């Protein structure tokens, strides 16, 4: 009887195809997979654990912090630290990056950027949320500890990125630069199993996704693009949880955009934790991702940990049309 390959098996098999691999990178990916299972359990049980609701703080980027944001952030950091395979982490929930003690046997050549719980304002009402991560190789291997320059790398330097969607089922979707693969969590065996091999984004699609409540604050080009979508009978879908909105766009085709607004002229979403990792996934699946200024997101220079950007991401035909109108 055929069975589905697990995430661990997939990562190990990919590593075996790389003759010079030290196992460090695949070990780190597997640890992220384990952390995702724990976060999945917590997200699923949140209503029973008194960890719903606000934490009482506002994070470094001005967002109201939910208790579950804090919990998942600490949990992910602990797993990355204990992996012994990660030199440091920058998180949407932390103002500064954290460097981990260097493992004497290894160089700890990777750092991780993450949004541990994206879309967390949806949690209390049981709507899909996600975790986003990106992995970079360090630029300062001669230093014991990870430095700021290890984190301020453009998206084109990502060696891996992915997301976990805690939806009607839980999915782990990732890329190491040779296509995108999706794994669905099988509760029975407690493993992510390959369910979406070599995912491809349609060149066009039936949906556009934007918070249209900000319409009056959008630029003329963005307004024209929205009118184009309406004229083309595209349907509006907006969850307010970027992982879920991008996942739908990836599977069915369409476009997701978060343009500049009065409150956030550069856009709301963060380059390191949201825009870059998801742009790598979408490009690897054949889609496109640009800013409102029509720059390719993955090529944008990163100057600070919490830099924001506008983003237009999705099917090639639709993103190209947006570029024509902007
Ligand atoms: P948060 O994690 O603070 O809930 O932010 C979610 C992000 C992103 O996932 C989503 O697309 C966007 O913010 C929603 O913002 P609006 O509520 O302004 O539409």
What is the average of the pLDDT values?
A: 92
Gyration radius (Cα, Å) is 19 Å
Determine the CATH topology of the largest domain: Fructose-1,6-Bisphosphatase, Chain A, domain 1
Biggest beta-sheet profile: 8 strands, mixed
CATH superfamily of the largest domain: Fructose-1,6-Bisphosphatase, subunit A, domain 1
Q: Per CATH, which architecture of the largest domain?
A: 2-Layer Sandwich
Strand order, biggest sheet? 4-3-5-6-7-8-9-10
Number of distinct helices: 8
Structural class: alpha+beta
Q: What is the β-strand count?
A: 17
Helix-strand pattern: HHEEHEEEEHEEEEEHEHEEHEEEH
Textual characterization of the structure:
The structure is a single chain. The chain has 326 residues and is an alpha+beta fold. The model has no long low-confidence stretch (mean pLDDT 92). It folds into 2 domains: 7-196, Fructose-1,6-Bisphosphatase, subunit A, domain 1 (Fructose-1,6-Bisphosphatase, Chain A, domain 1); 207-325, D-Maltodextrin-Binding Protein, domain 2 (3-Layer(aba) Sandwich), CATH 3.40.190.80. α2 (24-45) packs antiparallel against α3. The protein is built from 8 helices and 17 strands. The chain has helices at 7-16, 24-45, 67-83, 148-151, 220-231, 242-252, 271-284, 316-325; strands at residues 54-58, 64-66, 88-91, 98-99, 110-118, 129-137, 158-166, 170-175, 180-186, 191-196, 207-209, 235-236, 254-258, 269-270, 288-290, 308-309, 311-314. A hairpin with a 3-residue loop joins β7 and β8. The strands form 4 sheets. Strands 4-3-5-6-7-8-9-10 form an 8-stranded mixed sheet, with helices on both faces. Strands 12-11-13-17-15 form a 5-stranded mixed sheet, with helices on both faces. The structure holds 2,5-anhydro-1,6-di-O-phosphono-D-glucitol (AHG). 2,5-anhydro-1,6-di-O-phosphono-D-glucitol is lined by residues 63, 118-121, 211, 240-242, 245, 258, 268.
């Amino acid at each position: 009887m055929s069975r589905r390959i697990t995430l661990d098996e997939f990562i190990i098999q990919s590593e075996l195809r790389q003759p010079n691999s030290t196992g460090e990178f695949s070990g780190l990916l597997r640890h992220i997979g384990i952390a995702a299972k724990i976060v999945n359990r917590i997200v699923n049980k949140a209503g029973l654990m008194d960890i719903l609701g606000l934490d009482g703080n506002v994070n470094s980027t001005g967002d109201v912090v939910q208790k579950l944001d804090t919990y998942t952030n600490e949990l992910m950091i602990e797993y990355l630290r204990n992996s012994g395979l990660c030199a440091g982490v920058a998180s949407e929930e932390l103002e500064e990056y954290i460097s981990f003690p260097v493992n004497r046997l290894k160089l700890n050549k990777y750092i991780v950027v993450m949004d541990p719980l994206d879309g967390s304002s949806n949690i209390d009402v049981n709507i899909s949320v996600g975790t986003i991560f990106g992995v970079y190789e360090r630029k300062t291997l001669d230093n014991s500890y990870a430095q700021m320059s290890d984190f301020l790398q453009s998206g084109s330097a990502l060696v891996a990125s992915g997301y976990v969607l805690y939806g009607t089922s839980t999915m782990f979707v990732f890329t190491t630069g040779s296509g995108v693969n999706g794994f669905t969590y099988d509760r029975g065996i407690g493993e992510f199993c390959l369910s979406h091999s070599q995912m491809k984004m349609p060149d066009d699609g039936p949906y556009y996704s934007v918070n249209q409540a900000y319409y009056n604050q959008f630029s003329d080009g963005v307004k024209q693009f929205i009118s184009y979508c309406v004229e083309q009978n595209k349907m509006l879908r907006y969850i307010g949880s970027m992982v879920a909105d991008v996942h739908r766009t990836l599977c069915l085709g369409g476009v997701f955009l978060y343009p500049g607004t009065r409150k956030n002229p550069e856009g709301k979403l963060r380059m390191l934790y949201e825009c870059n990792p998801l742009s790598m996934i979408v490009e690897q699946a054949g889609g496109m991702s640009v800013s409102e200024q029509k720059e390719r997101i993955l090529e944008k220079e990163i100057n600070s940990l919490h830099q924001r950007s506008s983003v237009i991401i999705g099917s090639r035909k639709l993103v190209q049309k947006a570029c024509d109108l902007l």
